[in-house]
Amino acid sequence: MQPPVPSIWVDGEPATALPLPDRGLDFGDGLFETLLLQLGHAHFLDYHLQRLSSGLQRLAFPDCLARCESALRTAAQGLAELPWAALRITVSRGAGPRGYAPPPDATPRIVVTAAPLQQDHRDPPAPLDVAVAQIRWSAQPALAGLKHLNRLEQVIAARQATAAGADDALMLDAAGNVCSLAAANLFIVESGCLYTPPLADCGILGTRRRLVIERLAPACGLSVLEQSLSLQRVQDAEEVFCSNSLRGLQPVGSCDTRRWQDHPVARRLHQAYVDVLARDFDGGTA
Q: Per-residue pLDDT tens for 8-20?
């Protein structure tokens, strides 16, 4: 039997409630990361901490990266008997007076939540059915790439996907180009090359997107290019797959009326991902 999982820690202590006021709740003034745990080991922790550090700097938060890392490691140690788990860290600017202006003496609040996962993340994931979202991802270069707390566009897109009977939503940017899925980055395959949308105006710079670009594609002899992708180009692609910190690399099986029956490149990349997971778990160099 699996041990009980403490689900919430606030500033390093087990908790059942969030202290108020909190600017994360009031204004979405904060960031988050979602990590995949295997027997208490946080996969690609360095990627997550690097993205979190960049976000803290861009939002002009007081330096709290060491506190964040300590909170993650403490929580992860308590989950060492779970085969797989999801660990989320949310960093808000903490308490503050009324009004949008951040207090000059803010003390960031660090909330960690955990949940067990049932799937063995080394198994090949089933293809996703996706529907094109009606809502578009608005352009904001100052926030592009960040995993900030303002995710209402993705909430609406996910609701639209559910209403369409799809697993996820394909999101377009303000110019009508493909940006990503609501909960994952997107890649297409053309003539043995991978293409993924640039994220200078909107979207999230995913840790698994980075992993594909820096490690997995080179390991499979594939090149990756960032290019603007029209919806038609995505639907005409030989293969489409997505990347997500919990789901790993997952093929897209359909997008509206377009269907893909085979996913040889996605399968190769998934096996490379499994190999990297094993080396990362063993403490080796991926």
A: 999 989 998 889 9
Cβ proximity of 133 and 258 under 8 Å = no
The pLDDT of residue 3 is above 50? no
For residue 251, whether the previous peptide bond is cis, meaning omega lies within 30 degrees of 0, is: no
The contacts of residue 242 (CB under 8 Å, 6+ apart) are 128, 168, 180, 181, 184, 185, 186, 187, 249, 250, 252
Three-point CA angle 277, 280, 285, nearest 5°: 125
Q: What is the pLDDT of residue 5?
A: 52
Strand-pairing partners, residue 242, are 186, 250
Nearest Cα residue to 92 out of 125, 47, 52, 138: 52
For 170-195, the pLDDT digits (tens) are: 999 999 999 999 999 999 999 999 99
The pLDDT score that the predictor gives to residue 138 is 96
Which single residue is written with the structure tokens 């910190």?
245
> Checking DSSP bridges between strand 193-196 and strand 223-226, what pairing results, if any?
parallel
Q: What is the maximum alpha-carbon separation in the chain?
A: 56
The one-character DSSP state at 193 is E
Amino acid identity of residue 9, one-letter, is W
For 147, 190, 248, 264, the CA distances from 193, given in Å and listed in that order, are: 27, 5, 20, 13
Q: Which among 201, 17, 37, 45 has a CA at the least distance from the CA of 121? A: 37
Name all domains of the chain by residue range, CATH numbers in brackets. 8-116 (3.30.470.10), 128-281 (3.20.10.10)
**What is the mean pLDDT of the segment spanning 119-138?**
95
Amino acid identity for residue 68 in this structure:
C
Question: Which residue has tokens 């997500």?
Answer: 244
283 C-beta neighbours (distance < 10 Å), count: 7
Q: Model pTM? A: 0.94
